[in-house]
Amino acid sequence: MEKEPITSNGLKKLEEELIFLKEKKRPEIVAAIAEARSHGDLKENAEYHAAKEEQSHNEGRITEINDIIARANVIDVTKLNNEGKVIFGSTVYLEDLDSGEKINYKIVGKDEADLKQKLIFFQSPIGKGLIGKNKSDLVEINTPSGTKNFEIKDVKYI
Length: 158
Fold this sequence. Notes:
By secondary structure, the chain is an alpha/beta fold. The protein has helices at residues 8-37, 46-71, 125-130, and strands at 4-7, 72-75, 91-96, 102-108, 119-121, 138-143, 146-156.
């Protein structure tokens, strides 16, 4: 079983989602199934089938989260002394040398990645291109939208 790196914040979010799915969502779905069942013939009962499908998705997600938690290798960057080097869990402050745009990314595991929140997967092109580099380095990264040139302005472990 391969360990999956995750930040302590990412693990906390998964644990919160698991509690929600088990303690709130699961009983709601069971109640919806019972309600739909009381309406009679199940073959023609769209509510029943929708509730059963939702139950299947919910249980699948619970299994998935349990698996992720079991394989989690929690990396707490606040406890690491690694000044200036881009590592898993660090926040990287960049300047796009082509546009002058300043941007920052936190390098995270697969289940935490969310580009809108500037959380990038460490195995993504940008994640791979940044890991191991240092503050002040110039980095050229091939992305699906073309080659990007960045300067690493700062690296923080927060």
